[in-house]
């Protein structure tokens, strides 16, 4: 049986993945989970000793398939490892081989057997009493998407809402919300269904977040520490701004005022271009995207805050500087933008720290030190900001 | 013999929610209803927002081809604002688009479509030494076939089949003569493809910040300014992906195709094609695009696209009549409560509108692009297509490409064309930078006006139309590729391209209509933005339903 008796490393070998890669894989997992390097063997042991693969039902509702796509971009572990060696993804409309009623049957069988993780992608579509989304059942009948969720949620051991759409309706729920989109949490509350639920916002979900949460769950058998919005604290505890490599320029008052300009080439801060980094709590500068090749700000684009709740309405217009936001310990960012030009020396120090914290960290460095930056914020806020 | 019905719902290995209902007589499909089953209403959400935000929001139509939506949206906005983007921005956009094409073509062929042609369970019977020999003979790349087979065996023995649960392996419609060794080669490459699609995606992410849902191709150009290190990363990965397409994906296609000669004989569909063209040339003229635009309406003759000939109908769609018979530039979207019963809904069965060109449905996608480019005489496309036709024993007969198998082969050839083109584009960019051109963004003063963007997603012709007044989007409409392909009937009874392509398909196994699934996947439907059908009631002659509930299971 795959996963049994430590066969995983051999199975990885089948795809040309060496023992060294496997260690890298475990190191990556440990890093995402915020564990010390000494925990790597433990992770390896836990991954290889599982007696069977954890069944997963992956439902797509009002989604663009972007979260499935995003998960397919995972690196260590890659998607083949995830779906063949760690999990048994018995239902995934995008990836599964079966179609039609045999696909629906695979879903039904898994739900019937219980003990599975439900991964939900996309918004819950409630318009026309749930008829905005219909899905074929094993008997060829059509089932409302909302009914499908109820059944799958009731039987699940735990639920992971992947991507902003599943968390709170995402862009689909943006005004005027024509399809009655909502997040899994709200829907289940309305239906009185209580299950352990983990929210993983972002548009799309960051595959490293998902992998970390799944592995964490497999290791500990329980959901990780969550904040008040049921987001893992480890990943959603700090703002983008806290860890942004351009942060030093922010402190220096060195800004980009036009895209593609000389200032952009110098890597100055994108705050005047509308960057939502200061109000967005997630760790993009550290986990980055697509095997960590880049992330938004690194590519010259201001953060549009896709990890925020109600992100499209809350953060649009995306290129307008945010106003009147109680961030940075009460300091108004608009005033910072205008007033910090004098704070040069401190900025250079912070710049150095910021670069170290968020530079192209190898997997083992992920989640590196960022406290110095935060400490600085606190001190400055204590002095009444920059005014 | 009585007519029977069968259905495929959910259609898997596609993007979004699709239901296919088929009427079958004497082992052949005689009628088809294709319906998308999800409404999200992006066009309505766009209203009143900042015009620049459209680039970000419209990408969320589709997580498989977000780049194309983003680019088409930005193109519409560039036009509305009257912006001529810098030459370097053109190349960056081409490169991001090309990376997404490569990602999408690889993922589609191996992960989405191949399992209709490859019986993975047969790979267990393969002899490993013979597999290596066969790979060499077929000119396709090798792999640790023994290890892959072991892995597969462990999966089967473990009884936890994961994404292979409920697969239709063993179905009689799989080529009986295909050696198990070829199945094993394909399974090994299925796993490799997972890696390659993510390499291609990473190229898009280097320039776009992340993928899916890039961040940089905004109105005016791009926010991305390349460094040497980034250029290295782009080139390194592109070379790797292009080589893989050339040495693995194309030979695999040509090795599998001969086992399915009959698949060149079904799935023709409407036989009429549309391409808007993609990959902008320096002139920025649509007609100069590296894959040019064109319409093919009779035989294999290509003509220019006339946007004003495009109208959208809603006869079979869940929208108000006022939304119908309109050009997308002035179209509207008013959903009505869906009634999933054609007898009660007045014949409506889909969330997809029905776009028509001069009144007729057209097929869009990789095959359309390749045929248009072939007929327009693009040299490298001619070379690739003629070479493949020869290998398939159909030299000089490009018309055989108009079929289920041809649609697959055509798109795979396109992957190689795009891979090669992207390398040229990187080199062009490097030359520009060396020559001192460092402009990537053109600023603009007025953000008002109306514009239409016409471009191609991997799945076909894509149009976005924006109308900006008082610095806000007043109206926004899209016609996405799958809307063309999966469009429902119009009042005159003329079916959409996929419906037509299904008619005449063999259907030897009512419970698992694999040949029909093959045809559906050959279009690579991407439905999130398109439709939803429903219970089309049995016609009077229909005696049994083949859905399991209807007694056949
Ligand atoms: S405002 Fe944005 S670009 Fe500037 S430092 Fe903060 S997160 Fe980085
Ligand atoms: S940087 Fe901002 S916009 Fe980019 S992925 Fe992170 S939260 Fe989303």
Question: How would you sum up this structure, described in words?
Answer:
The complex is a heterodimer of chains A (387) and B (553). With 387 residues, chain A is α/β, with parallel strands linked by helices. Helix content of chain A is 42%, strand content 10%. In chain A, the strands form 3 sheets. In chain A, strands 2-1-3-7-9 form a 5-stranded parallel sheet, sandwiched between helices. Chain A has a two-stranded antiparallel ribbon with strand order 4-8. Chain A has a two-stranded antiparallel sheet with strand order 5-6. In chain A, strand 5 and strand 6 form a beta hairpin. In chain A, helix 2 packs across helix 3 (40-49). The longest helix of chain A is centred in the C-terminal third of the chain and has 15 residues, at 344-358. The N and C termini of chain A lie far apart (65 Å). Residues 1-7 and 323-387 of chain A have low confidence and may be disordered. The two termini of chain B are 20 Å apart. Helices cover 38% and strands 12% of the residues of chain B. The longest helix of chain B is centred in the C-terminal third of the chain and has 31 residues, at 404-434. With 553 residues, chain B is of the alpha+beta class. Chain B contains 14 helices and 12 strands. In chain B, the strands form 4 sheets. Chain B has a 4-stranded mixed sheet. A 3-stranded antiparallel sheet of chain B has the order 4-5-6, covered by helices on one side. Chain B has a 3-stranded antiparallel sheet with strand order 9-10-11. In chain B, strand 5 and strand 6 (302-303) form a beta hairpin. Chain B has helices spanning 42-46, 53-59, 66-81, 87-113, 128-138, 145-158, 180-208, 228-256, 366-375, 379-391, 404-434, 481-485, 497-502, 514-522; strands spanning 4-8, 18-25, 28-36, 273-275, 294-296, 302-303, 310-313, 354-357, 449-457, 460-469, 472-479, 544-545. Chain B is globular. The interface between A and B is large, with 109 and 111 residues. Bound molecules: iron/sulfur cluster (2 copies). One iron/sulfur cluster binds next to loops of chain A.
């Amino acid at each position: 049986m795959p996963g049994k008796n430590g066969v995983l490393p051999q199975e990885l070998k089948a795809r040309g993945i060496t023992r060294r890669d496997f260690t890298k894989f475990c190191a990556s997992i440990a890093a995402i989970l915020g564990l010390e390097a000494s925990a790597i063997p433990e992770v390896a042991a836990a991954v290889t000793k599982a007696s069977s693969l954890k069944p997963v039902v992956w439902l797509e509702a009002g989604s663009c398939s972007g979260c499935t796509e995003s998960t397919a971009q995972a690196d260590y572990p890659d998607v083949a490892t995830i779906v063949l060696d760690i999990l048994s993804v018995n239902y995934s409309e995008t990836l599964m081989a079966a179609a039609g009623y045999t696909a629906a049957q695979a879903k039904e069988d898994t739900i019937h057997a219980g003990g599975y993780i439900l991964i939900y992608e996309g918004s819950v579509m409630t318009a026309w009493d749930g008829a905005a989304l219909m899905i074929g059942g094993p008997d060829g009948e059509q089932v409302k998407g909302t009914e499908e969720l109820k059944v799958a949620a009731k039987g699940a051991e735990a639920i992971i809402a992947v991507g902003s759409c599943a968390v709170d309706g995402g862009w689909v729920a943006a005004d005027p919300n024509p399809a009655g989109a909502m997040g899994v949490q709200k829907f289940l509350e309305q239906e009185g269904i209580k299950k352990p639920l983990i929210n993983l916002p972002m548009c799309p979900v960051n595959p490293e977040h998902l992998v970390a949460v799944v592995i964490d769950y497999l290791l500990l058998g329980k959901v990780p520490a969550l904040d008040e919005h049921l987001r893992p604290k480890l990943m959603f505890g700090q703002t983008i701004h806290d860890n942004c490599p351009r942060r030093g320029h922010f402190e220096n008052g060195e800004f980009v005022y036009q895209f593609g300009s000389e200032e952009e080439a110098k890597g100055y801060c994108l705050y005047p271009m509308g960057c939502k980094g200061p109000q967005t709590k997630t760790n993009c500068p550290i986990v980055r995207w697509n095997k960590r090749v880049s992330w938004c700000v690194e590519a010259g684009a201001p953060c549009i805050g896709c990890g925020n709740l109600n992100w499209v309405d809350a953060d649009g217009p995306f290129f307008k500087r945010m106003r009147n936001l109680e961030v940075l310990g009460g300091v108004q960012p608009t005033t910072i933008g205008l007033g910090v030009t004098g704070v040069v020396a401190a900025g250079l120090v912070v710049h150095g720290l910021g670069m170290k914290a968020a530079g192209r960290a190898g997997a083992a460095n992920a989640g590196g030190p960022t406290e110095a930056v935060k400490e600085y914020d606190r001190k400055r806020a204590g002095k009444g900001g920059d005014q | 013999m009585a007519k029977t019905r069968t259905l495929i719902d959910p259609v898997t290995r596609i993007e979004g929610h699709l239901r296919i209902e088929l009427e079958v007589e004497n082992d052949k499909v005689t009628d088809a209803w294709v319906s998308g089953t999800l409404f999200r209403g992006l066009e309505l959400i766009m209203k009143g927002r900042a015009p620049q935000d459209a680039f970000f929001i419209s990408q969320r139509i589709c997580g498989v081809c977000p780049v194309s939506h983003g680019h088409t949206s930005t193109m519409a906005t560039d036009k509305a604002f009257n912006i001529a983007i810098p030459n370097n921005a053109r190349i960056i956009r081409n490169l991001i688009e090309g990376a997404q094409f490569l990602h999408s073509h690889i993922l589609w062929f191996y992960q989405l479509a191949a399992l209709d042609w490859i019986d993975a369970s047969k790979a267990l019977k393969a002899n490993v030494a013979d597999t290596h020999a066969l790979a060499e003979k077929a000119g396709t790349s090798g792999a640790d076939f023994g290890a892959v087979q072991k892995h597969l065996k462990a999966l089967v023995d473990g009884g936890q089949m994961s994404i292979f649960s409920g697969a239709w392996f063993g179905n009689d419609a799989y080529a009986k003569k295909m050696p198990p060794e070829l199945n094993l080669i394909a399974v090994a490459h299925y796993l490799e493809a997972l890696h390659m699609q993510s390499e291609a995606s990473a190229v898009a992410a280097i320039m776009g910040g992340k993928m899916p849902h890039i961040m940089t191709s905004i109105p005016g150009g791009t926010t991305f300014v390349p460094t040497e290190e980034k250029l290295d990363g782009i080139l390194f990965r592109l070379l790797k992906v292009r080589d893989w397409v050339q040495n693995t994906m194309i030979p695999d296609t040509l090795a599998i195709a001969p086992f399915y000669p009959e698949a060149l004989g079904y799935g023709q569909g409407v036989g009429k094609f549309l391409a808007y063209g993609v990959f902008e040339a320096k002139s920025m003229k649509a007609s100069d695009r590296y894959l040019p635009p064109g319409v093919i309406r009779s035989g294999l003759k290509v003509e220019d696209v006339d946007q004003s000939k495009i109208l959208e109908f809603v006869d079979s769609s869940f929208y108000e009549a006022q939304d119908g018979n309109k050009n997308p530039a002035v179209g509207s979207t008013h959903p009505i409560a869906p009634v999933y019963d054609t007898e009660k809904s007045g014949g409506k069965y889909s969330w997809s509108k029905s776009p028509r060109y001069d009144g007729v449905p057209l097929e869009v996608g990789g095959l359309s692009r390749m045929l248009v480019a072939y007929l327009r005489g693009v040299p490298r496309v001619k070379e690739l297509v003629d070479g493949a036709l020869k290998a398939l024993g159909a030299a000089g007969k490009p018309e055989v490409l108009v079929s289920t198998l041809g649609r697959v082969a055509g798109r795979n050839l396109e992957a190689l064309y795009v891979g090669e083109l992207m390398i040229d584009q990187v080199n062009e960019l490097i030359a520009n930078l060396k020559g001192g051109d460092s402009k990537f963004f053109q600023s603009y003063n007025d953000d008002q006006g109306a514009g239409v963007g016409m471009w191609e997603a991997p799945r076909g012709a894509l149009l976005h139309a924006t109308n900006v007044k008082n610095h806000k989007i007043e109206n926004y409409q899209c016609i996405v590729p799958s809307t063309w392909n999966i469009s429902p009937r119009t009042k005159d009874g003329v079916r959409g391209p996929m419906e037509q392509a299904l008619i005449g398909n063999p259907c030897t196994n009512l419970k698992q209509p694999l040949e029909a699934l093959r045809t559906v996947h050959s279009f690579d439907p991407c439905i999130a933005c398109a439709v939803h059908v429903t219970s089309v009631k049995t016609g009077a002659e229909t005696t049994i339903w083949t859905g399991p509930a209807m007694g056949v299971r």
